[in-house]
Structure formats: C-alpha cells, structure tokens
C-alpha cells in the first residue's frame, strides 16, 4: 500500500511549479483515471476555469510568500465531469528528495456554507488584485529587498482596504463596509443581543436627475449622506448601498430604538431641498437577534437585507415618505 493511501483524505503531491508527482487512491477515485495519467500534468487539470483563476491570483502568491495555505475553497472536477466543492490545505516540503508541495483536500459537504465562503475568498482576491503586479515583480529580488517590500505591501494593503470600503461620491462606507460591520457584530456580540437594519431610499430620485441633471442628483445624495450621519449613534454604521439607496446598521438597537432613529431620519432629510422643496425618503426596517455564540453566518446579512427590502417595497407602494417594518425578527440559526 502506498504511504499516501494511509491518509484518510484525498492527497496530491506536486513539484514546486505545480506539476503532479503522485496522488493517493482517494484523490484518484474522486477525479478519475490512474496516477500515470495525471503524472507530470499541471495541477489545474483538476480544476474548472474559475478555480484555475483563483489558484493563479490568490493561492500561488500565498504559497510563494508563506510556504503554505490553509482553508482555501476551490472546486475539483470529478470523474463524471461534475464540480465538487473542496477545502484545501497545502504545504511546501520535501518528497523523495525533491522540493514539492503536498495538497490535502476535504470535500465540502455543506454547499451553502461553501458557496458563501467562496464569495468571501473571491472578494479577498479582488482586494489583492491591484497589489499582485507589483508583488510579482518584487518577488524576483525578495531576498535583497525583503524589509522594504514588506513595508510597501503593508502600506498598500491599508490604502486598498480603505478605498475598498468607501463610496467615492458620499465618502460613506459601501456594501463591503456593511458586510464587515455586521460580521464584527456577529463575532463580538452576546447571545440575544438585538440589532436592526434600515434601508433608506430617496423618493422620486429619478425625477431629480431627469429634471435638474446628475450634478444636482449627486448634490442631493451628498447632503442626504451628511444628514444620515447626523442621525446615527457612534456605534451605528451608515453606508451607501447603491444608487439612491442607503443602509443604516444599528447594533444593540431593538424595535423602539430603530423607530426613534427612523423618525429622526425623516425629519432631518427634509432639510435637503430640490427647487426649494423638501426631499423625502421611504424606509424599510428588519430586526435581528444574535443567536450564535461568537460565530458568523454568511447568509445572515443576505436574509436581513431581503427582509428590509421587502419592507421598503411596502413603504413605496403605500405612498412613500414613511417607514414600514418586516413582520418578524430575524435570528441567526
């Protein structure tokens, strides 16, 4: 029996460039064909196109920097041509006297969780994309410029992180900033802690753009952003969710507190005027409770947004310039 067959997971050994050296029987049973068929081929022969791109843009740069990767989510193509979600750990080392990389695959049975983690991994890859061209060039002289390179990358990461969380027109946070704020609440809040999500949409905003032009529309959005900032507490987060739609994340806020903030929003946004007429907004609110102990659920925000959007739609269809609520609290399963 091959020593790799003793391991209770699919295992692959490649050389340092990703060419296949050997694989255990669990992996061959998963992807089909025998070891001789795969020997010498490139690792991405197992992968569909999106995972190949992710391998090149994210996995290999991490391997070059650290010598290992952990908890990377990819798809493999099995013997039947189907995509199989897997979690991958890999480490650089020695195999039969030559430098190699050992890849261990764990089939991800919880598909919904895997898909959510894949979305997060893709977002991380996008944040790193601007850095990769410079990082790849600097890797050629990494031994001589390691200290300088590390400082440069750290500075770039901070700048990219700031830019990736900011809406350029209003200087509010963007959707990614909302995701980060909700994730932080999930990880840090106590069981039973309340929170609320408020979706705010400018009434008849298309008329402003059509009648007065996009410059006036931009001014309205910027002034509205300032008024929404004035409505929030220090713990709240206000983001421009898209177009004329804003979101307020209100951690530690139950229905009564959210209602008071919604009333204040309606009052303050009326100070924004177009042709000397006050701007109004429609608001949809959904409430939540923390039911996980220091954990996170990647679909929680999606569900909360959907419920707030439904309430916002009801506010619009009921005549606008009002607040509507989702019918029930949203907890974390």
UniProtKB/TrEMBL annotation:
<dbReference type="InterPro" id="IPR000014">
    <property type="entry name" value="PAS"/>
</dbReference>
<feature type="domain" description="GGDEF">
    <location>
        <begin position="193"/>
        <end position="328"/>
    </location>
</feature>
<keyword id="KW-0808">Transferase</keyword>
<feature type="domain" description="PAS">
    <location>
        <begin position="1"/>
        <end position="41"/>
    </location>
</feature>
<dbReference type="InterPro" id="IPR000160">
    <property type="entry name" value="GGDEF_dom"/>
</dbReference>
<dbReference type="InterPro" id="IPR013656">
    <property type="entry name" value="PAS_4"/>
</dbReference>
<dbReference type="Pfam" id="PF00990">
    <property type="entry name" value="GGDEF"/>
</dbReference>
<protein>
    <recommendedName>
        <fullName>diguanylate cyclase</fullName>
        <ecNumber>2.7.7.65</ecNumber>
    </recommendedName>
</protein>
<dbReference type="Pfam" id="PF08448">
    <property type="entry name" value="PAS_4"/>
</dbReference>
<keyword id="KW-0548">Nucleotidyltransferase</keyword>
<feature type="coiled-coil region">
    <location>
        <begin position="111"/>
        <end position="149"/>
    </location>
</feature>
<dbReference type="InterPro" id="IPR043128">
    <property type="entry name" value="Rev_trsase/Diguanyl_cyclase"/>
</dbReference>
<dbReference type="GO" id="GO:0052621">
    <property type="term" value="F:diguanylate cyclase activity"/>
</dbReference>
<dbReference type="InterPro" id="IPR050469">
    <property type="entry name" value="Diguanylate_Cyclase"/>
</dbReference>
<dbReference type="InterPro" id="IPR029787">
    <property type="entry name" value="Nucleotide_cyclase"/>
</dbReference>
<keyword id="KW-0175">Coiled coil</keyword>
<dbReference type="InterPro" id="IPR035965">
    <property type="entry name" value="PAS-like_dom_sf"/>
</dbReference>
């Amino acid at each position: 029996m091959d020593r790799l067959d003793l391991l209770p997971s699919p295992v692959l050994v490649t050389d340092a460039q990703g060419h296949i050296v050997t694989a255990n029987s669990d992996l061959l049973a998963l992807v089909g064909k025998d070891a001789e068929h795969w020997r010498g081929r490139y690792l991405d022969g197992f992968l569909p196109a999106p995972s190949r791109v992710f391998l090149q843009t994210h996995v290999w740069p991490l391997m070059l920097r650290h010598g290992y990767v952990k908890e990377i989510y990819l798809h493999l193509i099995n013997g039947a041509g189907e995509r199989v979600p897997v979690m991958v750990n890999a480490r650089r080392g020695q195999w039969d006297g030559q430098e190699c990389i050992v890849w261990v695959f764990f089939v991800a049975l919880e598909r919904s969780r895997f898909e959510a983690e894949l979305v997060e991994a893709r977002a991380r890859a996008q944040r790193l994309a601007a850095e990769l061209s410079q990082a790849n060039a600097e890797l050629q002289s990494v031994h001589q410029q390691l200290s300088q390179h590390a400082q440069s990358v750290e500075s770039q990461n901070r700048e990219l992180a700031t830019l990736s969380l900011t809406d350029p027109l209003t200087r509010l946070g963007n959707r990614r900033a909302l995701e980060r704020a909700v994730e932080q609440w999930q990880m840090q809040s106590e069981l039973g802690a309340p929170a609320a999500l408020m979706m705010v949409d400018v009434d008849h905003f298309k008329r402003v753009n059509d009648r007065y032009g996009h410059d006036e529309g931009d001014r309205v959005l910027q002034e509205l952003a300032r008024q929404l900032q004035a409505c929030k507490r220090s713990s709240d987060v206000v983001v421009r969710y898209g177009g004329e739609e804003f979101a307020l994340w209100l951690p530690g806020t139950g229905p009564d507190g959210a209602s008071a903030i919604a009333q204040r929003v309606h009052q303050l946004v009326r100070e924004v005027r177009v042709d000397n007429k006050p701007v109004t907004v429609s608001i949809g609110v959904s409430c939540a409770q923390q039911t996980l102990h220091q954990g996170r659920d990647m679909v929680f925000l999606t569900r909360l947004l959907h419920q707030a959007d439904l309430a916002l739609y009801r506010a619009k269809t009921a005549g606008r310039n009002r607040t509507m609520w989702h019918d029930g609290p949203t907890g974390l399963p």
